[in-house]
Amino acid sequence: MQPTSHLDALTTETLYETLRPITVPPSSKYARFTNWGTTFTCSPLAVFEPESEYQCELILELARREGKVVRAVGVGHSPSDLACTTGFMLRTTKLDRLLEVNVDKQYVVAQAGITLEALHAHLAKHDLAMINVGSISDQTLGGIVTTATHGTGIDYGVISTNVMALTLLLADGSRVPCSRTERSDLFIASICGLGSTGLILNVTLQVEPAFRLREVRETLTFRDSVRQMHPLVHASQHVRLRWYPATDQVSVCSADRSVEPCKPVGDWFWDRLLAYHVTQFLLFIARYVPSLVTVVGRFSAWLSSGYVVAIDTSHRIFNIDCGFPQHTTEWAIPYENTQACLEDLHTWLRQELDNPRGLRPHFPIEIRFSDSDDIWLSPSSGQKTCWIGIVQYKPYGFDVPYRKLFARFEDILARHGGRPHWAKAHGLRPDALRRLYPRFDDFVRVLQEVDPRGTFRNEYVQRHIFGRQEKEFDGRVFKRYRPSQAK
Cα–Cα 20 to 30 A to 42, which of 27, 264, 331, 373? Predict the structure, then answer.
């Protein structure tokens, strides 16, 4: 592809000088990137913080001339090396404006770098809200779109299904709109594109009138929750289960739209002092006394037990406190396999907990649901889906053993047709992904058409999509803590 004509006259030296005001100084701590979970880190060749589309064009032109990769990153919440690069890093957090609001047709146009938290505030001014939201609102809009991030609700698709159109800056510097009716292949590839089709500039997002949710939280035994799974999941619009293996208890959270007045719940003593600070301290001690993990799990299950009703603004119910930095993995399985998969996980975890030297999982195991979609690389593509995720917390930032636990978890999920969440670390390569995603080769075709030079292909994309096996593309090349490699 040829460089954009209006930039031809600029010398490379001029490009560097023009970009200097938005280039993070090498001496700054922000010249080094670490994700939120402190599990992956990298030192890009340069970090840019553009404030305009023109500056993005300049960055791509410089990358083209220098033969460098450009990786867009928002707030870095992905618990994998999806955002990492040794090339140019483009932080989108200053591209964060709301560009258009159409109340009648219920859509908004926003720059991709806007965080969901900021978007919620903008929407509220117009009495609008996102249709569904995941567990947090710290991420950027572009980040959740390009990874097909999900909330929960068996009749609600991943958030990318609410995207109506995109504006992309392609590798050749061209600014391209796309939707289901205009350059549809590029659009479908981009709404779960791992940042590899182009730089997402603007997102047109379908929304709905602002609403409150009434959430009922009740505690069931594991056996009862599995036995009643189908009616539980379909009884409310948004259902989330939080399973505590140490006690075999499941906290069932069922939320529906409501016109009742707000009745938020929350208490500093229970939610911050006990659930956060005391739990984190106990997990820190458990690094040296592993058997204590089971005790802490029982304590956490006790804190979450009982019957609670909360009514609040939609995103405040959708969102939860994710606690402290963590290792995490999450896989999506066909909904019809949910009960069998959970039974297999239960059998395995009981064996671990009954073994004095067994693995000690942290808590809770989160179980969510989404509707099927037609997005080529969406884990929900072609199937209603159950998402199952586990965590291993890093109290005060200290690492914990997790690799054996995650490997056995992933083996079980894979046996039940599991597909990994794209934002989370996994070991699947093109051959395996091709078997899971019938349109995988169509996705690769689009990448080769719009980015033949690989401008947007960082190590993650080269590894998982193109099968690169060299040492510099290894899945642990950006690991922050080397001692964890042996665990």
Answer: 331
CA triple 341-437-431, angle to 5 deg: 95
Using CA atoms, how far apart are residues 114 and 127, in angstroms rounded to an integer? 19
> What whole-number distance in Å separates Cα of residue 74 and Cα of residue 150?
17
Helix, strand counts (H, E) of the chain: 15, 19
In sequence order, the 6+-apart residues with CB closer than 8 A to the CB of 127 are 103, 209, 210
Element (DSSP H or E) covering residue 212? strand 212-221
What does the pLDDT read at residue 323? 85
Residue 380 structure tokens: 């929900």
pTM: 0.95
> Strand, coil or helix: what is 423?
coil
- Using CA atoms, how far residue 171 sits from 73, 106, 158, 452, 457, in Å, is 16, 32, 27, 9, 11
Residues 6+ apart with CB under 8 A from 156: 131, 132, 237, 238, 370, 371
E strands, 272-348, where?
308-313, 326-334
Q: Where are the beta strands (DSSP E) in 84-174?
A: 88-91, 98-102, 107-111, 128-130, 163-169
